Amino acid sequence: MGFIIRRLLAALPVLFLVSVMVFMMLHMLPGDPATVILGDEATPEAIAALRTELGLDKPLLAQYLDWAGKVFQGNLGRSLLDRTPVTELILQRLPATAELIAGSFLVALAIALPSGIIAAARPNQAADHIGTAVSFIGMSIPHFWLGMMFIMFFAARLGWLPASGYVPFSADPSANLKAMIMPMVATGFRESAILMRMIRSSLLEVMNLDYIRTARAKGLSTRRVILGHALKNSLIPVVTTSGIMIASLLGGLVITESIFSIPGYGKLIIDAIFSRDYTTVQGAILVSAVIVVGINFIVDVLYTLIDPRIKLGKENN
């Protein structure tokens, strides 16, 4: 419990700095939200009236304090464009991105785990060389380019899958899977290359430790040595990499979402930036920061499950 409280207290200054930096950078961008909303033909009087209505005529410090005060009350404000609550916009867009992230990570894990284990079990052999080559190819291919190739082949030529669009899982699970499988595989293949290299590297490091040599000296097969002893103890850096990967995908899928017409979280932020919708951007990025803090906390907890010698919040002596 003490660890949780310390992590929450440590997260507060991080979230504060994120909110201040985002607020200041947004207001440094050229362009006026009132002009964007009303158009270039609007009169100066109409623009001034809208700025007053939206609170944009106040000093920056007053605007920030007004917004921060609402946040502490659980209110992220309303969109400057259509006055929709920002919380509602986030709840509309976040599930699609969360599903894409989860599916992409599962695809990456399904590819990386067996290939990384096989490569580590046979270092400098054919399987290792093939896995290394495939991982380099995967890291070199942008996932949005691979997604476009999937659209051309599986949608345009074969007609097996829809080229774009999104259907919520709750509305139609089958249509949802058909719409999401290509972006998930396109993203997951690239992420699997990074994960596979980490699994292979971590396993090879563990395989040189004394207790592994002892297990081999007892006559245990390579399969039992890796799966029974080495794999679990090599997962710490893999879990760290996975946490970073999931956090980076939260806002890094905007191009993929645009290609496949997925109404996702990243696209919400980009659209809000271009339309100078300050309130939506501030709220969405603050929620992103909270999610990243939560991911880091989950990673720390997983450390203790993987290796009982690691104690939350304490140094292991």
Structural write-up:
This protein has 317 residues and is mainly alpha-helical. It folds into 2 domains: 31-75, no CATH class; 90-306, MetI-like (MetI-like fold). It is 76% helix and 0% strand. It has 14 helices and no strands. It has helices at residues 2-28, 33-38, 44-54, 60-72, 86-121, 126-140, 143-157, 173-207, 210-217, 222-233, 235-252, 254-259, 265-274, 278-306.
- Listing every helix as H and every strand as E from the N terminus to the C terminus, the arrangement reads HHHHHHHHHHHHHH
Taking all Cα atoms into account, the compactness measure Rg is 24 Å
Tell me the helix content.
over 70%
CATH level-two architecture of the largest domain: Orthogonal Bundle
Tell me the count of domains.
Answer: 2
Give the terminus-to-terminus CA distance: 21 Å
Tell me the CATH topology of the largest domain.
MetI-like fold
Apparent shape: globular
The count of DSSP E runs of length 2 or more, i.e. the number of strands, is 0
**Beta-strand content bin:** under 5%
Q: What structural category arises from helix and sheet content?
A: mainly alpha
Name the poorly predicted regions. none
User: What's the CATH superfamily of the largest domain, by name?
Assistant: MetI-like
**Whole-number average pLDDT?**
83
What is the count of helical runs? 14
CATH class wording of the largest domain: Mainly Alpha
Q: What can be said about the biggest beta sheet?
A: none
